[in-house]
Amino acid sequence: QVHLVESGGGLVQPGGSLRLSCAASRIIFSASPMGWYRQAPGKQRELVASITTGGATNYTDAVKGRFTISRDNAKNTVYLQMNSLKPEDTAVYYCNLPRSPPPSAYWGQGTQVTVSS
Question: Which stretch of DSSP H or E encloses residue 20?
Answer without folding.
Answer: strand 18-25
